[in-house]
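Run: sequence + guanosine-5'-monophosphate -> complex structure.
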Amino acid sequence: MEKRAQLYAGKAKSVYETDDHDLLVMHFRDDTSAFDGKKVEKLDRKGMVNNKFNAFIMEKLVAAGIPCHFVKRLNDTDSLVKRLDMIPVECVVRNLSSGSLVRRLGIEEGLELNPPTFELFLKNDAMGDPMINESYVATFGWADPEQLARAKELTFKVNEVLKKLFLDAGILLVDYKLEFGVFKGEVVLGDEFSPDGCRLWDAETREKLDKDRFRQGLGSVIESYEAVGQRLGIDFNA
Ligand code: 5GP
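>> structure
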């Protein structure tokens, strides 16, 4: 698959065209950002670790029947994905209270959320990804109601698959963010899944193993991502 012109550069990934109009190469860089791009650092090996982590998770989701943009991993830092028409909305599911939920409601961190919550945010760094709702999505035409309903259904289906996958490795899936797009009329998961976009705590000690280590300056960020991957059975040397 020939990698052609760069189509888009995000905060941690760059996307390239290929000789097939329907397929893109997603390149994972070592850049790490937080607080809507206000804190940025390069972390050695991050691109490789997240690319392999993501490929492992995507294969599990595809096996569980969740439509994903992921096609295959190409090398250490590149994966082949389908070109989607992206819905500019972030879907967040939370199993335990943390992050912005704790700040918004003034509640304790680590409360079990039963049933898990579902939230929508507009993907807009300049506005700090404001919280929105289904009515906003319809009024501003960010997605059709059926597309949004499908994105919500798939976000919860991901929870069923991944909560168990992580728990079997002694890890709590606290929360995560997913984005969706449309490919040939079908709503498809169009996001990476790595410790950059979710919260993962050790089930015994509740140690933070995800990007909160970077956000909160706790250190050993990539070492921690790799340790999570190894607990799931990922071989980062393969
Ligand atoms: P919170 O709303 O608590 O900041 O985030 C909820 C979950 O969504 C966390 O797992 C967080 O990592 C993820 N998340 C929220 N916004 C973004 C974003 O813009 N980029 C990434 N990579 N993850 C996000």
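>> summary
The chain has six helices and 13 strands. The two ends are 20 Å apart (CA to CA).
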